[in-house]
């Protein structure tokens, strides 16, 4: 076949840059959106924040002047124009106080920096202010290794022992246990030092006396024993607790209380007191010291009840309002094709697109949140057990959007309700058929399982089969495997591990 040119007509969907920007903003969380807005404000001079009670005169709906594409006379600039004018260089260079003082050409030899230059620390609150906590506002989380090294610097040791101690501390994981065996640690030391294995074990014993108690243990038994040995001698049942941990920890882990009472020749009340003492110990001593920063959740939607009706509103504090800077928009001239004017025109168009994308995001989020609240009013009134089945398709049909759009809106978006803060994904759950032909959501079933476990007999906890039978008595047909899956998602241990002594 000869190559030839053929003209065909067709249709295809093309994602414009504006649509791509709107979709990207739609799936951002609140914190990511605030960062995106800050970057846009820094990159586009046409954008600015709109504060409460701060509005330009003669501006359109997007915050720009009505005649912004016209000649744009500078006489219509707002009174806030002075905020964008360059300050006098002399005023910008000199301030008040010590900054106005001239610096001599020759300084004494013992001159201190703070004697000549104003220190930024002078802006901090004085030490007399009890409310000022410098450590809590400037420090980051302390790691377990740094905490142990701080104690090591206070302990008198030889250089060789200090080297061994630092190697051991590096081998301690975040839970407080020693990851490597002493033989492996000893093999990794410099052979020229001629360090014996006994020396490594002696240094480990010294580290195990550091805080928190139980640090540097090689297994759970040693960790619990280290903590028991650091307790005061007069504590009741201390010796029995040490004996139980040393010889019968496996039986305690399997909840075989009858075997423990028989082997240790104890009564049920005595064994209960011993177990209560052991339960005061921490099996993960390193978890007390964490270096991670706290993560905060900013709700996107606020739901409150007013006059018997649930009302939905966007969190205005998390949604900063933007507008087009009227002064810069007036500088754009219609017929001017210079590079500066073209740049400003492009920035103005991008600012309008960005504001429109934000408005579209807020409107979509409001529609979806309203439909969720309308569908889950029973949950807001009565709790998890009244949660109704809900899938993305239901909300997509109600608001006239695609399921992928609903998925983007509900990801990493949070709703503040009188019952707490929940991710929008939390309100979606599959359904299980009931005996009457109705439907029950998986969230409601989880709430019922949690309620049944909380009310069970601690000596004879409910098995998964028993829970499935109790649910069937309530008209909810759930298989044992489904009960086990829901129980594990709730973080509830199996019945063999929930057994307790009353």
From TrEMBL:
Q: What is the protein name stated in its UniProt record?
A: RNA polymerase sigma-54 factor
Domain RNA polymerase sigma factor 54 DNA-binding span(s) in chain numbering? 342-500
Instruction: Quote the biased-composition stretches of kind Gly residues, using this chain's numbering.
Output: 58-73
One short Pfam name that applies is: Sigma54_DBD
Q: InterPro entries this protein is in? A: RNA_pol_sigma_54, RNA_pol_sigma_54_core-bd, RNA_pol_sigma_54_DNA-bd, RpoN_core-bd_sf
Family of the protein in this entry:
Belongs to the sigma-54 factor family.
Q: Which GO terms describe its molecular function?
A: DNA-directed RNA polymerase activity
Q: Where is this region: Disordered?
A: 42-84
Q: What does this protein do?
A: Sigma factors are initiation factors that promote the attachment of RNA polymerase to specific initiation sites and are then released.
The organism named in the record is: Stutzerimonas tarimensis
- TM regions (residue ranges): none
Q: Which UniProt keywords apply?
A: DNA-binding, DNA-directed RNA polymerase, Nucleotidyltransferase, Sigma factor, Transcription, Transcription regulation, Transferase
User: Does Transcription regulation count among this protein's keywords?
Assistant: yes
Ranges for domain RNA polymerase sigma factor 54 core-binding: 135-328
């Amino acid at each position: 076949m000869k190559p030839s040119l053929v003209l065909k007509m067709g249709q295809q969907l093309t994602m414009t840059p504006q649509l791509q920007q709107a979709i990207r903003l739609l799936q951002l969380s609140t914190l990511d959106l605030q960062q995106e807005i800050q970057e846009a404000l820094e990159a586009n001079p046409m954008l600015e924040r709109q504060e409460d009670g701060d509005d330009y005169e003669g501006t359109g709906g997007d915050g720009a002047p009505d005649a912004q594409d016209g000649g744009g006379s500078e006489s219509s600039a707002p009174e806030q124009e002075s905020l964008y004018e360059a300050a006098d260089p002399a005023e910008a260079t000199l301030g008040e106080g010590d900054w106005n003082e001239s610096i001599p050409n020759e300084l004494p030899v013992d001159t201190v920096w703070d004697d000549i230059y104003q220190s930024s620390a002078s802006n901090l609150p004085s030490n007399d202010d009890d409310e000022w906590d410098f450590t809590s506002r400037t420090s980051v989380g302390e790691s377990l290794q740094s905490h142990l090294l701080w104690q090591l610097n206070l302990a008198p040791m030889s250089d060789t022992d200090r080297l061994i101690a630092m190697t051991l501390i590096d081998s301690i994981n975040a839970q407080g246990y020693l990851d490597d065996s002493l033989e492996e640690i000893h093999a990794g030391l410099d052979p020229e030092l001629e360090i014996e294995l006994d020396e490594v074990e002696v240094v480990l014993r010294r580290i195990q006396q550091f805080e928190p108690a139980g640090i540097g243990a090689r297994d759970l038994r040693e960790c619990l024993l280290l903590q028991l040995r650091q307790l005061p001698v007069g504590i009741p049942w201390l010796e029995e607790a040490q004996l139980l941990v040393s010889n019968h920890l496996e039986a305690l882990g399997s909840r075989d209380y009858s075997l423990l009472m028989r082997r240790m020749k104890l009564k049920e009340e005595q064994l209960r007191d011993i177990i209560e003492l052991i339960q005061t110990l921490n099996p993960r001593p390193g978890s007390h010291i964490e270096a991670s920063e706290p993560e905060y959740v900013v709700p996107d939607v606020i739901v409150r009840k007013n006059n018997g009706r649930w009302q939905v509103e966007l969190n205005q504090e998390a949604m900063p309002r933007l507008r087009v800077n009227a002064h810069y928009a007036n500088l754009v001239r219609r017929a001017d094709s210079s590079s500066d004017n073209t740049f400003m025109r492009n920035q103005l168009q991008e600012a309008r697109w960005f504001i429109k994308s934000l408005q579209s995001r807020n409107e979509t989020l409001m529609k979806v949140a309203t439909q969720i609240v309308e569908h889950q009013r029973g949950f807001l009134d009565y709790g998890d057990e009244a949660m109704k089945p809900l899938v993305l398709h239901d909300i997509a049909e109600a608001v006239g959007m695609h399921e992928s759009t609903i998925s983007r809106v509900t990801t990493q978006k949070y709703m503040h309700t009188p019952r707490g803060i929940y991710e929008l994904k939390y309100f979606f759950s599959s359904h299980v058929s009931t005996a009457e032909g109705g439907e029950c959501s998986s969230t409601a079933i989880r709430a019922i399982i949690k309620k049944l476990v909380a009310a069970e007999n601690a000596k004879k906890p409910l098995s998964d089969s028993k829970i499935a039978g109790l649910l069937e008595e309530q008209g909810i047909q759930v298989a044992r495997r489904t009960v086990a899956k829901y129980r594990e998602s709730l973080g509830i241990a199996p019945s063999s591990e929930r057994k307790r002594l009353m």
